[in-house]
Amino acid sequence: MKLTAAQEERAQRLHRQALGWDSHCDTLMDITAGRRTLGQRSTGGHLDLPRLRQGGVKVQIFAIYIESPPFLRRTLEFISAFYRELAENKGKLALATSAAEIKEATARGEVAALLSIEGGEALEGTPAILPCLYRLGVRALGLTWNHRNQLADGIAEARTGGGLTTLGLETVAEMNRLGMVVDVSHLSPAGFWDVLEHSRHPVIASHSNARGLHDHPRNLDDDQIRALAARGGVMGINFAPDFLGPGANLETVLDHIDYIARLAGCDCIGLGSDYDGISATPGGLEDVTQLSNITRGLVARGYSDPDILKILGGNFARVFAGVIG
Prior knowledge:
Layout: H1 5-17, E1 21-25, H2 28-32, H3 49-55, E2 59-65, H4 71-88, E3 93-95, H5 99-107, E4 111-118, H6 130-135, E5 138-142, H7 166-178, E6 181-183, H8 189-198, E7 204-205, H9 222-230, E8 234-237, H10 241-244, H11 250-264, E9 269-271, H12 292-300, H13 305-324
Parallel strand pairs: 1-2, 2-4, 3-4, 4-5, 5-6, 7-8, 8-9
Helix pairs in contact: 1-12, 11-12
């Protein structure tokens, strides 16, 4: 990608100005396992605090993904590890549980961190746990990973045509009441449509791409994207090469953004890297320090300043402000 000097200056200005927001990383798996810390630059993984700052990320959603039981205990261990990082990185990292706290943290030059749970197994069969998790700072939850749980069918169970269970519907209602964002990434198509029918608030697909561009079950089809956008939701473009298509690189990521923009407009697009949860990355986005390449690419492809700022973080900021307050 070759930019003129004026385009390069514009891209750098916009990247500095943007509320850089990444809606999904799995870094807490490494942190909880003691393999590295957030505060020190690492040669492993895709992000840490020094690299987030270098990459212009001002808001990072940290996912809590639990592979096996005991689910609730492991969830609490992840949260405890996150709180240790908060204590060790005062002045650099801040837990944000509201739009006001996001604004305050970023104004101080800190990375605003939000917590999300990836998989309703953490509830162990009862939405009554949600208020406790909310008090610990959790502000988003994906109802499933790929498989079936007590709340819904994931995309690996899509053959059954199953969507949300009664317990899943109760969970969505309780999340709406509390002010937690519902995440439909990994849900079966039937589950996706159930959420859109029953949620009173806009929802997100934190790390999903366009199936019309690359036919992978983890991606959203055209009807899903249009419906998500019509309800005021946002999808975060995932950097996993498997979801982007053959020979995935920076241009492929931009192609998915182009596709969704033409289909449903720029108000439903954000970034959901899946860093530290993917084994390979697209060329040009090897880690979080390379995110300015997306801004450069959007400038090169003719996006307006307002649309670039929306894609880089403004859209997710709007949804979270409306839901979590």
